[in-house]
Specification:
Two copies of one chain form a homodimer.
Chain A: H1 4-11, H2 24-28, H3 38-57, H4 89-101, H5 123-135, H6 146-162, E1 176-180, H7 183-202, E2 210-215, H8 220-228, E3 236-239, H9 251-263, E4 267-274, H10 286-294, E5 299-303, E6 328-332, H11 333-336, E7 344-348, H12 351-358, H13 391-427, E8 431-435, E9 441-446, H14 455-471, E10 479-483, E11 486-492, H15 500-528
Parallel strand pairs in A: 2-3, 2-4, 4-5, 5-6
Antiparallel strand pairs in A: 1-7, 6-7, 8-9, 9-11, 10-11
Helix pairs in contact in A: 5-13, 6-13, 7-8, 7-12, 9-10, 13-15, 14-15
């Protein structure tokens, strides 16, 4: 094994950009074993762990969202990668991460990050990722890493049971699941499986007759998936929802839309129902929607990207009533279940339908003699990608180390904090809670006083409020929704580090900024008469 | 902050599966701040680093591929996740990884892993992943983490320049790149962009007339992508290649195929050319293929998943001659460029065409006041997924810490070892090198003696040889190809830990097993007459 110094010299050899063949000097250089040397790894690894620990320890000090303008980092970095690493390049790079990069990040792990949905973190989730990257296998078939495939099969059943999913979606009940990167992938895979199943019945050429359904609240990932899968752009029905229904998809409206398409000679294909929409966490009534869909031979997928994590608590089981009838189901454990980015679990009732659409058979893929005659799972046939990460290890560690009860405590603590926030909003009559809180998201807005224009100016008023709230460096970071013409602020409690006092402080900032805005308007109003 | 013991108690609270509402006891439990506590992270993190370092240190001791049968792990694990974690759950889980899981893995990082293509690892790549997971942001828009988006823009330009890509594919030249998980995603994104551009010209309804092209050596990822994108199954032309052309796609054959489709009223859409095919690392002649494609208005994508890494060495620049004319290009830095799984870089000449197909506009996505009026990149619009990982940080660390020269040394050391292996094969007249080595893959086979049936039995003979080679616990692990009816063994040098003696030992095992097989055949032959 070449000593590190030799290796360092090799790395500092002259660049050979103009050469057309391997230069003689390079041909004689030793390979660089220290690139994966155990001792180097240990030394650098401990540096990284301390770095992250310090980041967590000081998280509360960062403004959640940086005050930077486009180009701030691009312009600060060299235009080319270095030819040769500087001395102690790793240490120096870590310093740059601390001094140049972190100050320009939006800190999703900040206890004051209430925007979007959470990017759930835990020590075990983060370290599970580290372990995955260290072991670095590519379990695209059973043979390509048997333990990785088997652990994935075990863990999707564990997770499915923990979330109270029906046995028909689990391996234990003839279905099965897999761990992907994102819900976008899960929805696309399910849609392609449904499409190919339908086209096998009616003929491939009729792809232009297929129609898919969702609500106007469904995440745009679905429209994107439909587009990718070749569904005509105007064959994606985003059915209107209303405030009285809490923005849930109406089975009656769905039935009407499907019937109209059938009457027009089109073919209803797929329904993407949502449990916990992105804007307001609306819950589509799965059971009733399935009844409508099944009468038209339509595949039903449930996207529970965010709210799926809450199903670990039995008190939320009711939100998926009727789930026994769905064809596929997905949720992001990286959103709210302590599994760091990325980890989307997808289950299907009939894996064979996924495989029919996405499966491939190639001789050059090694089969293992041990697996012959066995019906092993080759996950490459379940999804759109061949290369995959060993996400099961992370999810298994999370379930193992926190336990189902620990995950319930985690979810419930956020729900309680959101309840507390909601109570504070309701207690201030200048504000209103726009849609009933269902999980740990509170959608609220400042009422616009009649004398300032009332409903007509409400959206503008709240846009201004959000901007002001987010501009307070030490304050919370929230996002917005615009549903049924109503602009509202979203406070999504879910960062692992968030504690009750962060929620109380966040509310205080909102109140203060609202007071300032209202006072300003008062002055303008009095001046302008 | 609750002390760990309190938190531990909370996690050990009774399960509440039957309850329909939050039980009063749970409502009173504290949240569990130690789930992301800096000190806990530090302690567990150092455990994980030591664990991985020990794994690297002892890597040579594992058989590359385990002797296990399907169900070995599923049957060994409980059917349900634990309700409550056991004491020291993390330590105990790590012991299970060591004792139950690692023995059932295929060790892609073993210095004796010569199968498939490598899953390139480095300390910096692995720790880059750890850092990404620790920081855990979701940079789907510029505003969602400005530094993450900007670093990605910087690093794809750094990488593109290091790989000698034309400026037109870089941000610096009006194009641009992004970091995805896999080539499957890259190919699909490019194909959907091309498809929507074409359909905008000819009308969406003509999706059934579109035809895509590749060779019979192209990775099945392309056929899968075409299927996902709604291209009719029999509209994917896998053009025949032959041994005389080193299994490269022939521009003449391509022209004939495209013309035939045009004559039949169909619409040529997309060519997926490969630089370094999966089976034998064949190189399609990009420049000439582009000339053919452009005369039919066809989008050309280059899939350089494996060989793209070699482009860091100027002596390989010639394999992408003509690349200035392509529309998009992708390579997997996780295959051979020290960036651990996953990291696929994709570049396009016209980002606006990607965005036209995959872009979405939603008010609820936070816009940053700072970015208004600026033409910021929102990577969610470049790909099929919304959630994405901060892969740029890893790739930046790899380029920064090893330097372009270091990466060249890394590639060249593998190429030299593959050359050495090739020389050894050629020196044993019982064997032949089937296709000229181009990078660090050697495709070879044992010649079948005439008296044993010659060519007629050659494939069977080599299948047997591979099985025997891979069955030697302390030996190499290789895979196979079957091209033009010829079954061959593949020895892909690329594991970071591989040194010259591993390659020499691997060859010795192959020779030994061949001798045994030939001797056995000799006996059978003499007995049977």
């Amino acid at each position: 094994m070449a000593p590190p110094s030799q290796c360092f010299d090799a790395m500092h050899g002259a660049a050979n950009d103009g050469a057309a063949t391997v230069p003689a000097a390079a041909a004689g250089t030793p390979q660089c074993p220290n690139v994966l040397d155990a001792d180097v790894f240990r030394r650098q690894g401990h540096q990284v762990i301390d770095f992250i620990a310090e980041y967590y320890g000081g998280m509360g000090e960062y403004p959640v969202h940086p005050s930077v303008t486009p180009g701030f980092l691009r312009n600060a970095l060299p235009k080319d990668a270095p030819s040769r690493p500087e001395p102690d390049a790793f240490g120096s790079a870590l310093r740059d991460v601390r001094d140049l990069i972190l100050p320009g990040m939006t800190h999703w792990q900040s206890p004051r990050h209430f925007a979007h949905f959470p990017a759930s973190s835990s020590t075990v989730g983060a370290l599970g990722e580290a372990l995955i990257a260290g072991i670095n296998v590519v379990p695209f078939t059973w043979a390509a890493s048997p333990a990785a495939t088997e652990l994935e099969m075990v863990v999707v059943d564990w997770l499915g049971k923990a979330l109270h999913l029906p046995e028909s979606l689990l391996f234990a009940g003839g279905g099965g699941g897999t761990l992907l990167g994102t819900s976008c992938e899960a929805i696309l895979c399910a849609l392609v499986a449904a499409r190919d199943k339908k086209l096998a019945e009616i003929g491939e050429r009729r792809i232009g007759d297929l129609v898919v359904y969702c609500s106007d609240q469904t995440h745009f990932a679905f429209r994107k998936a439909a587009r990718i899968a070749g569904i005509l752009r105007d064959h994606c029905r985003a059915i209107h929802t209303c405030r009285e229904d809490m923005f849930a998809l109406s089975p009656t409206e769905l039935q009407a839309a499907m019937q109209a398409d059938v009457d027009a000679g089109l073919v209803p294909l797929f329904l993407c129902a949502t449990v916990g929409t992105t804007q307001t966490t609306a819950v589509d009534p799965i059971g009733k929607l399935c009844a409508v869909a099944s009468s038209h031979g339509v595949w039903v997928h449930v996207d529970a990207a965010y709210a799926g994590s809450a199903l670990v608590c039995p008190e939320f089981r009711h939100v998926i009533e009727g789930v026994e009838s769905v064809d596929s189901f997905s949720m992001n454990a990286h959103k709210w279940l302590l599994a760091n980015n990325d980890c989307c679990a997808m289950w299907v009732k009939k894996p064979s339908e996924l495989i029919a659409a996405l499966g491939t058979e190639q001789e050059y893929i090694l089969k293992d003699a041990a697996s012959e005659g066995h019906d092993v799972v080759d996950y490459k046939d379940w999804t759109m990608t061949l290369t995959r990460r060993f996400r099961a290890l992370k999810m298994w560690l999370v379930l193992r180390c926190y336990g189902v009860d620990g995950l319930r405590d985690h979810i419930r603590s956020h729900v309680r904090m959101a309840e507390a926030f909601e109570d504070m909003v309701r207690a201030d009559e200048r504000f209103e809670v726009v849609t009933e809180r269902q999980f740990a998201l509170v959608c609220f807005r400042l009422r616009s006083p009649e004398k300032f224009g009332g409903e007509k100016t409400a959206n503008e008023l709240n846009r201004g409020l959000l901007e002001e709230v987010n501009a307070v460096g030490s304050g919370p970071y929230m996002s917005s929704a615009n549903v049924g013409g109503i602009y509202m602020l979203r406070c999504a409690v879910g960062s692992t580090l968030t504690e009750e006092h962060h929620v109380a402080d966040a509310w205080k900032v909102v109140q203060d900024r609202a007071s300032v805005i209202l006072r300003k308007m008062e002055i303008i109003y009095s001046v302008l008469g």
